[in-house]
């Protein structure tokens, strides 16, 4: 009896020997899983190419950090902690799960050997792991049913609630933990009754069950033991084969998804991987129009989504009531793939995605702010997919009218406003500014070490020209030998590219690269984070680029810029991180360091700051697009600043400035809230006299040396 109880392989179930039943169940379970996964891989094989096999060591490092280390999960404290515990439990229980399956084939199999010290320790750890996973399932189910976190809800326009499926899966995992523990507990209770007490981890689920079964007869314990084993095997394989039909597929795919995740921030994928710009004319269709136009990695993203809702919870477009929720971009594509690549039957008919699962408004609503990608614990990508879908729309001529006008102006004049090229440098001719600061136009006759790349909005918008002048004055103050391209500078094309107009972007980029090279400059400075991102990531073979906030921070640190105290000590400042300076390029500290260097300046942080910054509404062509929305993103942002107790919002981006100033008016907060660019604030506070005195002192010092 004792021997038989130790291994299910030695018993019979409905007259079928365990030695036949369990190998058969293992075979059927694994065959079903292999069949399902093979079918799931079919669209990936049909998908577009995606080069994700480079930099293996960096990928491995990120795998350790984001997958094994669950790095992003604590950003949501409760759910994150629950997930980390479940994940750790699964990792720890993997060996036991394998042992249990083999036990049905080979009696007394245990990995590690249960007679060894390591084996005994492992059993205790596994008992606790199963208990923790079980409890986490209960807590997660209670959260879903009782507390109902808003981010799990499914708005009616996105289909029906996923709650039942989620709870069913939680229940299945809890049942697996229960059956596993019951298997252990019944054995331990039986052995204890026979005078061979077996130690189970105190207060673990198995221990509690063992105590509950202490007075149960041997025959009943045996029935429980073998039934628990059978149920465990059946639940295990059911779960394994059920997971690829829903959100739990991420258990299998997440490791690969994180390993192959995008490595380079701020970049946009090429139109076709492996096709150079020179050969783009050979590409018949641009972008994503049907499901198979997505790359295999983007399809893997769809499978890997855990439906946790963090992306949409942080998406400003979703918060503003635009028809966009990144979570559902993924869920809808996954549902589409399940429907069009069924387990039995013929695969996809190549249905166009726009109009069937996505709407045009949905795709144009994204500001490419990157909040969704920053938040996703599974490193799922959105910007590249959205840009690819836009490329498809542009290729088919489906561009909103307001954007069409701006694109045409960019094509003919090199700026979205359709203004004359020769007026590009008019901002330096301002009567008050010109006598204070000389700005060279690098037209071939004049040269400089540094190029100030101004970009369209700062060059042409009356209000934003003040940022240009402040930037120039700062560069002049620190003694930078700089100039601008003037009429030779076209729009950086940053937003053009992100709006899916790759060919126009390439034309703008090539023109600017030529002009930059011809100017002979050694480095580039810009006050526009969009231009900064374009020059840094979208352009090739141009000198190194810095954002002005980086220059100012360095000069403040070196003492080359000294700042006067704030005029009104009652003002409370807050810094708004522009998406393309913060999230996309990780410049968070420099602007804050500059603010903190202004004596007497009181600074507070908004609840959403740094990598969780809330997009102001987007820049570039976003200014020409009027999406359907309930509330402007900028208004929400201004309200966040007010909630933080600030009355001055400092930005470091001309587009943020447009959106903020506009939002202050819309929110009726004029007089209570103001917005200012970092360059304007610094220019206002630079201690110019001190600088002059210092220069004079330096001059006197060197003159003394000469006399001696
Ligand atoms: S990039 Fe920003 S706006 Fe676009 S889907 Fe992601 S969070 Fe939303
Ligand atoms: S994409 Fe990522 S963040 Fe969004 S629901 Fe899926 S797993 Fe969660």
Topology of this structure?
Blueprint: H1 2-6, E1 12-13, E2 16-17, H2 18-46, H3 56-68, H4 77-103, H5 117-147, H6 163-193, H7 205-212, H8 218-242, H9 250-259, H10 296-304, H11 310-314, H12 316-319, H13 326-340, H14 360-364, H15 371-375, H16 383-395, H17 401-413, E3 440-441, E4 450-453, H18 456-460, H19 465-477, E5 482-484, H20 494-498, H21 502-519, E6 523-526, H22 529-538, E7 545-547, H23 548-558, E8 572-575, H24 589-596, E9 602-604, H25 633-643, E10 648-651, H26 654-666, E11 674-677, H27 678-685, H28 688-707
Parallel strand pairs: 3-5, 4-5, 4-6, 6-7, 8-9, 8-10, 10-11
Antiparallel strand pairs: 1-2
The chain binds iron/sulfur cluster (SF4) (2 copies).
One iron/sulfur cluster (SF4) is lined by residues 305-311, 326-327, 330, 375-376, 378, 380.
Q: Could you characterize the architecture of this molecule?
A:
The protein has 708 residues and is mainly alpha-helical. The chain has four domains: 3-176 and 219-259; 277-395, Fumarate Reductase Iron-sulfur Protein, Chain B, domain 2 (Orthogonal Bundle), CATH 1.10.1060; 412-557, Rossmann fold, CATH 3.40.50; 560-687, Rossmann fold. The chain is 52% helix and 5% strand. It has helices spanning 2-6, 18-46, 56-68, 77-103, 117-147, 163-193, 205-212, 218-242, 250-259, 296-304, 310-314, 316-319, 326-340, 360-364, 371-375, 383-395, 401-413, 456-460, 465-477, 494-498, 502-519, 529-538, 548-558, 589-596, 633-643, 654-666, 678-685, 688-707, and strands at 12-13, 16-17, 440-441, 450-453, 482-484, 523-526, 545-547, 572-575, 602-604, 648-651, 674-677. Helix 22 links the parallel strand 6 and strand 7. One iron/sulfur cluster binds next to helix 11 and helix 13.
């Amino acid at each position: 009896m004792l021997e038989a109880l130790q291994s299910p392989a030695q018993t019979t179930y409905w007259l079928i020997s365990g030695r036949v039943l369990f190998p058969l169940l293992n075979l059927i379970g694994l065959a079903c899983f292999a069949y399902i996964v093979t079918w799931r891989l079919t669209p990936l094989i049909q998908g577009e190419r995606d080069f994700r096999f480079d930099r293996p060591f960096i990928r491995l490092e990120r795998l350790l950090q984001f997958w094994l280390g669950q790095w992003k999960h604590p950003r949501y404290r409760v759910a994150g902690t629950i997930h980390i515990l479940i994940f750790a439990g699964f990792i720890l229980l993997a060996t036991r799960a394998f042992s249990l399956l083999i036990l049905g084939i080979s009696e007394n199999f245990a990995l590690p050997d249960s007679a060894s010290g390591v084996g005994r320790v492992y059993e205790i750890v596994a008992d606790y792991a199963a208990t923790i996973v079980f409890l986490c399932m209960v807590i997660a189910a209670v959260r879903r049913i009782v507390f109902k976190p808003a981010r799990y809800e499914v708005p009616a326009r996105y289909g029906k609630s996923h709650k039942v499926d989620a709870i069913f899966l939680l229940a299945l995992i809890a049942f697996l933990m229960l059956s596993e523990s019951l298997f252990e507990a019944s054995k331990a209770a039986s052995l204890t009754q026979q005078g061979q007490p077996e130690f189970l981890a105190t207060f673990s689920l198995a221990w509690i069950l063992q105590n509950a079964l202490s007075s149960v007869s041997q025959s009943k314990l045996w029935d429980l033991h073998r039934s628990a084993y059978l149920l465990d095997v059946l639940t295990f394989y059911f779960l394994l084969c059920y997971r690829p039909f829903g959100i739990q597929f991420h258990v299998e795919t997440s490791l690969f998804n994180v390993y192959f995740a995008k490595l380079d921030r701020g970049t946009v994928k090429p139109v076709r991987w492996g096709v150079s710009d020179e050969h783009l004319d050979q590409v018949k269709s641009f972008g994503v129009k049907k499901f198979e136009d997505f790359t295999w990695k983007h399809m893997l993203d769809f499978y890997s989504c855990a439906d946790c809702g963090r992306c949409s919870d942080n998406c400003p477009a979703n918060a503003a009531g635009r028809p966009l929720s990144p979570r559902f971009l993924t869920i809808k594509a996954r549902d589409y793939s399940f429907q069009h690549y069924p387990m039995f039957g013929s695969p996809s008919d190549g249905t166009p995605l726009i109009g069937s699962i996505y709407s045009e408004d949905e795709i144009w609503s994204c500001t490419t702010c990157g909040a969704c990608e920053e938040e996703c614990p599974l490193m799922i990508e959105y910007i590249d997919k959205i840009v690819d879908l836009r490329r498809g729309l542009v290729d088919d001529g489906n561009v909103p009218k307001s954007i069409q006008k701006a694109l045409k102006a960019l094509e003919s004049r090199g700026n979205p406003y359709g203004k004359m090229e020769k007026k590009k440098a008019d901002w330096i001719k301002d009567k008050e500014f010109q006598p204070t600061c000389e700005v060279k136009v690098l037209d071939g006759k004049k040269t400089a070490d540094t190029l100030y790349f101004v970009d369209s909005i700062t060059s042409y918008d009356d209000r934003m020209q003040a940022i240009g002048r402040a930037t120039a004055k700062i560069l002049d103050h620190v003694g930078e030998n700089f100039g601008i391209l003037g009429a030779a500078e076209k729009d950086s094309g940053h937003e053009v590219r992100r709006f899916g107009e790759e060919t126009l972007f390439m034309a703008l980029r090539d023109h600017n690269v030529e002009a930059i090279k011809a100017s002979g400059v050694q480095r580039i400075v810009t006050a526009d984070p969009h231009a900064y991102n374009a020059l840094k990531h979208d352009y090739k073979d141009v000198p190194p680029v810095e954002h002005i906030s980086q220059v100012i921070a360095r000069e403040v640190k070196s003492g080359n810029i000294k700042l006067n105290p704030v005029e009104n000590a009652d003002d409370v400042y807050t810094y708004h991180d522009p998406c393309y300076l913060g999230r996309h390029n990780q410049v968070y500290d420099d602007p804050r360091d500059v603010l903190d260097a202004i004596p007497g300046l009181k600074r507070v942080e908004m609840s959403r700051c740094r990598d969780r910054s809330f997009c102001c509404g987007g820049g570039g062509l976003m200014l020409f697009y009027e999406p359907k929305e309930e509330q402007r993103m900028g208004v929400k942002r201004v309200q966040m600043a007010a909630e933080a107790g600030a009355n001055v919002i400092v930005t470091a981006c001309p587009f943020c400035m447009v959106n903020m100033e506009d939002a202050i008016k819309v929110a009726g907060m004029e007089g209570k809230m103001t917005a200012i660019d970092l360059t304007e604030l610094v220019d206002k506070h630079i201690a110019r006299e001190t600088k002059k005195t210092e220069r004079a002192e330096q001059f006197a010092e060197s003159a003394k040396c000469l006399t001696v």
